[in-house]
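Why does residue order matter? Because the sequence determines the fold. Keep that principle in mind as you read this record.
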Amino acid sequence: MRWVISYAVFAADSHGNVHPVTPIYEMGIVIEISKVDPCLFCAFVVNSDFGDGYRLVDITDCQELEVLNKEIAILP
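Structure:
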């Protein structure tokens, strides 16, 4: 999965409203999804600007989350 952690570029429209344009993504393998809040999950992240390892990710609006691979593998 990948999710937005910030934006590199913002742009203003003709009314002066500023909108994010270029997202910065972090990618990882989802380890567990919260049973209470589906927008909260634990992921293992590699090759991140913030270091490798486990993250507790909170995507509050659930709109900035993309599934890259839907195959499920359960190891014994």
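The beta strands are 2-12, 18-33, 40-45, 53-58, 65-66.
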